[in-house]
Design a protein that fits this description.
This protein is of the alpha+beta class and 196 residues long. It contains 3 helices and 12 strands. The longest helix is centred in the N-terminal third of the chain and has 12 residues.
Length: 196
Amino acid sequence: FWYASALGSLSRNGVEGFARHNFAGGCYSMINHTRVDGDSVVKLPAKPNPDWWVAKFFRDLTGVDVLDLRPMEGGGSEFLQSFAFGGKRDLRENSLGATLMFVNTGNEDIEIEIPGYEDDVFSHNLLYPRREFKLTAPKGDLRSDTWLLNGEELIWDGTLHTPEGFVVDDNNWEEEKFVVPALGIMFVELINATVY
């Protein structure tokens, strides 16, 4: 979680670049290529650790504009950090939308409502369609070197494409809120948002 928190906090404070000291080596590198087996170290095929996925989604989904994110209901939790950025991917003609990032270090899901937008056309157009990317550890095991995207194991296929998020649209939306998973990081692409 510290890496997602650092990326969001540093961006909010005007820092434009952030480098890791251990990309492919050290005690917690972004790319894992070894495993300790008894008294020996076994060389493995390269596999991204969770922080690599955080960096990947952050780089691919957030634009350079850092936005003011007003407090949201549910966002008052001491376990939740919220960040907002101009979008990066061209998901709609002439607009990059916006991307929200939430970091939940608590043991329970957190529901976030967007105040002032409940049950009206404006809210519906802002929040739908959207893409959600929920990153969690399997069974809440934060020591795992594997992460799940929307409940499915993230497996690096050797390319740098961004896995697709879960699309929330007219066919499957229920309420005007986000549910940030316990012990998880969530990116939300607001496709119809306009950033001024």
